[in-house]
Amino acid sequence: MDSPEQWLLSAEERGNAATAIPGWTAGNLAEPLLHGATYFDRLVEEVRALDAGDHLFFTDWRGDPDELLRDGGPTVAELFTEAVKRGVCVRGLVWRSHMQQLSLNKESNRALDEAIEHGGGEVILDQRIRRMGSHHQKMVILRNDEDPSKDVAFVGGIDLCYSRRDDADHGGDPQALPMAAAYGDTPPWHDVQLQIRGPAVHVLDTIFRERWDDPNSPDEDHPLAWVHDKLHRARLHADPLPPQLPPPPECGPHAVQNLRTYPAIRPPYDFAPQGERSVARGYTKAIKRARRLIYLEDQYMWSGEVARLFAEALADHPDLHLVVVVPRVPDQDGAFAARPQYVGRWQAIEMCQRAGEGRVHVYDVENHAGTPVYVHAKVCVVDDTWASVGSDNFNRRSWTHDSELSSTVLDSTRDPREPRDPAGTGDGARTFARDLRLALAREHLDLDPDGGEDELALDPARFIEVLEERADALDAWHAGGRQGPRPPGRVRRHQAEKLPWFTRLWATPVYRLLDDPDGRPLRMRLKKDF
User: Fold this and answer.
1) Is this structure's pTM higher than 0.90?
2) CA torsion angle 178 479 495 317 (round to 10)
3) Which three-class secondary structure state does DSSP give residue 67?
4) Which of 148, 254, 288, 377 can bridge 248 by disulfide, Cβ–Cβ 3.0-4.6 Å?
């Protein structure tokens, strides 16, 4: 690899000259945290280490103030307000959202706002979005005013809310949100967050500050929301943040690129006047380099525009395989909630399977009790070289319409295990990307969690064989009435449902207008460009 920019976007390729963030930073140390319980435990440890003069900044799609971060606490609100009492500057940007009757989060997010404000912190309920859009970024940034080497940030798919505190056994969070009946009373939840140390923390700090300092009102262009918030005395003006602390020193072998989605809105964001679609551009650049294996975990995987990118890669490279892990069923029951998602998913998977016949492998997962696990993770690994963890799903909404944040990692350390260069390009497998894929494979395939059976998943071809073998065995066990010992593994072959024409007639426009809208400027839509 001559340069990281063979895989990563340059500042110019980001397509947003108004932002202050660089293309990417070197010298970082990234660690994937599998499952909410792991992330929450680490978050408690790091926040409790903060002291007077330090900074705690966070963004969230949904936040529940009473969500327990450990079995005995603290709750989210307790952890953050305790930090305020120690003199930590606590600031948050949380999506204002819509009412819970729509399976959304207005009441929860307002409760988190009130709890932290009452404790002395400051939270903005942010509605600077497109119609029917959301702020979907999930990050926490911790800065130390005396020792920048202690700075750390967390970014990925895990909200500070109910249902997220699950672990590898997937028994679910005792504080559960209502979901589709298939997931039971405490829905199993699979998710990933990324812990980052090094100069990339300063970039994430800048990303937060750009949104915080945006001069438009958080209720801009939403008059009903403005009236409601004025009557309820919600905070509509952000106090200035303290001066930005210096960047942390380099501490590891990882180049990290922070990719974003912001829609084109009016009035425009100061830091992204035409929006930003570096998530779409960053994934496009990496997927076009794929030669042997794209491994993907995604909550939705339902957009034709995004599926076309994978289909073209599969058509261009006959040795390329695509492995996708998705939820078995949508998160909510009911025709209006589920059917449009089925339309999008069937179209996306069908397009990929036509382009790469026999080379597209789609699975869902269950726990050992046979309950489906809701896959909320947004993870992509390309040829064991490039990897990403973020808030963005593989659909048009996440790539153009909502605000999103994804961190991609390119490790300078070549992995010594065979095959050392699975793609055959000379770039070589990299330790971070391969370790991330193997950690997920160990869980889904019931391999030795300490790595003693990694030889079953190291080579892409062998990995796919084991996936197919274990999925077939588990499917057969269920079909045979679950007689005898349960076969190892948690993967099942996913059956994308093709709806009858009369259902597609109404579900397709709902899918395109509500589930998967387009936030690009008109000229980009016409050019089919990101």
Assistant:
1) yes
2) 130
3) coil
4) 148
